[in-house]
């Protein structure tokens, strides 16, 4: 029997790598879209042992001709659109590229699918950032949106575009409204990985302290490896729809710091408030964490908590990893990597 084919845009990112690993294990012919640059883009695929099992294709989502040519040539069974300018914090300075990638890129993909590959099943990476300044204490698929960043606004466009192309053209398109999801493969600019890595550096003596922004921000943090299973499940359904993927629990950045300290046997004592808040190592009195307003955002998303009931009942998906366990996993990974590097 012919293998099912899947194309992952953004295959070099955290979710792209975990999804590639999952689809390889399920026997798919996996293609990954790769945007050429000078960085080592493939280290995540290498870490997961799938770099030789993914066929890499040159891909630039903002190039409409290229997107159309690729979709019409391969007519993949499944397309997972994970390509994005995904760092919210940078989206104010990079609002034009963020919009081109996160909004226009999705339009190009959907147009190509509509015209040349209408049987393709398509997953759009939507996000809890669309809820932004929340209008309901717990957010579900029916909660109105109020994005707070150029990133959130651009993602909202592509979310609605996906809904609209599904309803207008009867295409097989689903959108996953994923809340924050982390792992040892998370980029170091995101707060959880920044904390796990920099904390290890502080304890190893190669960094003085960690500078963080808003310690009161609350996020619903889950494990990325579990979240990509929800993406796959969405495309295996007979009905295409939107699904919130979340744990249903929320944690402050400050508490995440404490959870990350535990595996290193560090107890942190907080002193001061707002911009003057500081975290000290109880045993040594050494300053470990300080607030640096450089990391504040022009408009903040204060708190997010997702209602995952629809994903649980319709997809049979549920989160397994608690945020404390996630913090431990990330710190253990970073500590081992630092020890190995010497
Ligand atoms: O920030 C606060 C920051 O950058 C989380 C992306 O995957 O999830 C991610 O977006 C919170 C914010 O993720 C620092 O202000 C404090 O309130 O880890 P983050 P994010 O912005 O929530 C959603 C679902 C996506 O879709 C995005 O693509 O932490 N925070 N201090 C900090 N954040 C960072 N980055 N650095 C700090 O020093």
Summarize the structure.
With 342 residues, the protein is α/β, with parallel strands linked by helices. It contains ten helices and 15 strands.
Could you walk me through the main structural features you see in this protein, from its secondary elements to its overall organization?
It is a single chain. The termini are far apart. The chain is of the alpha/beta class and about 350 residues long. β4, α4 and β5 form a beta-alpha-beta unit. The longest helix is centred in the first third of the chain and has 22 residues. Helix content is about 40%, strand content about 20%. It is globular and about 65 Å long. It is built from ten helices and 15 strands.
Q: How is the secondary structure organized here?
A:
Layout: E1 5-9, H1 14-25, E2 29-34, H2 43-47, E3 54-58, H3 64-74, E4 78-81, H4 95-116, E5 121-127, H5 150-169, E6 172-178, E7 181-182, H6 191-204, E8 210-212, E9 218-219, E10 222-223, H7 224-235, E11 242-245, E12 251-252, H8 253-261, E13 268-271, E14 278-281, E15 287-291, H9 309-315, H10 323-341
Parallel strand pairs: 1-2, 1-4, 2-3, 4-5, 5-6, 6-11, 7-10, 8-15
Antiparallel strand pairs: 9-12, 13-14, 14-15
Helix pairs in contact: 1-7, 3-4, 4-5, 6-8, 6-10, 8-10
The structure holds ligand F7E.
Global outline: globular
Strand ordering within the main sheet = 3-2-1-4-5-6-11
Q: Helical element count?
A: 10
Structural category: alpha/beta
Summary tags:
single chain; 342 residues; alpha/beta; 4-stranded mixed β-sheet; 10 helices; 15 strands; 38% helix; globular; binds ligand F7E
